[in-house]
Task: inverse folding
């Protein structure tokens, strides 16, 4: 179901996807909306946020969740709501004429169409991450860092499959890459070069990389590391360029702590092997 004026054709509207989880309040605390907002089909980046919801009944809270979603996207947008919660799905799927007046007014005012989105392919990653955020929140970022980067690489004997997940400043970015050869450390360094290309000016990133050999690159002799892993040369040059041009800084973690971001980045790499 969708609603909106005919000022612009539906096919021309940019698509925005919002993954929603609604958790009921308890002991006087309000219900909470947790959402990840992703733009485009099979997008590799999104913004995450959470907000308390007003309303004494479950129906009022579901309405509040949808109103928040509508207000978070630009005008003239196709909005897809992705959720595993049946009540929210049923509300969006009802006839537009049966929606609460507040929802119809909000859609009409912003010229937004709304419908239920699928939970297939890459969307499953966002759903799993959303559920993890709702339960425990994302790992905290220390006061000296603005972002965290998680990287992982696997090899099937012929090709290396690497994945990266960068998060901070309310944003999540994911990236995956495959190349010939079996240099796992070089594969993860490719993810670092990608992350440094995404980072804004003057930021500091905390590096969580699976391969322990990469500590020699960051904290030791980078040139010697490249001699050992020739496949890392291009990535090393890109990293140096971004560090200088953007005044970026980094910290290397000494201890790996298992969390949902680690599980997510392993899932991304494993998906390429399937």
Result:
């Amino acid at each position: 179901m969708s609603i909106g004026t005919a000022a612009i054709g539906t096919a021309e509207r940019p698509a925005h996807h919002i993954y929603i989880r609604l958790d009921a309040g308890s002991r006087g605390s309000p219900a909470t909306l947790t959402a990840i907002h992703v733009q485009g089909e099979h997008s590799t980046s999104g913004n995450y946020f959470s907000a308390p919801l007003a309303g004494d009944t479950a129906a009022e809270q579901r309405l509040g969740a949808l109103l928040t979603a509508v207000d978070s996207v630009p005008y003239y947008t196709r909005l897809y709501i992705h959720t595993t919660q049946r009540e929210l799905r049923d509300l969006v799927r009802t006839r537009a004429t049966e929606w609460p007046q507040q929802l119809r007014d909000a859609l009409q005012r912003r010229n937004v169409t709304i419908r239920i989105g699928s939970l297939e392919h890459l969307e499953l990653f966002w759903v799993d991450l959303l559920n993890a955020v709702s339960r425990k929140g994302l790992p905290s970022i220390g006061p000296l860092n603005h972002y965290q980067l998680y990287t992982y690489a696997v090899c099937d004997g012929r090709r290396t499959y690497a994945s990266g997940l960068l998060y901070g400043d309310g944003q999540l970015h994911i990236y995956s890459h495959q190349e010939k050869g079996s240099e796992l450390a070089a594969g993860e360094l490719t993810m670092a070069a990608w992350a440094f290309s995404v980072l804004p000016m003057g930021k500091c990133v905390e590096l969580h990389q699976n391969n322990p050999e990469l500590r020699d690159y960051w904290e030791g002799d980078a040139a010697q590391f490249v001699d050992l892993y020739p496949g890392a040369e291009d990535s090393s040059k890109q990293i140096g360029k971004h560090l200088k041009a953007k005044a970026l800084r980094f910290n290397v973690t000494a201890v790996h702590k298992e969390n949902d971001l680690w599980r997510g980045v392993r899932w991304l790499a494993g998906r390429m092997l399937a």
About this structure: Confidence is low (pLDDT under 50) at residues 1-10.
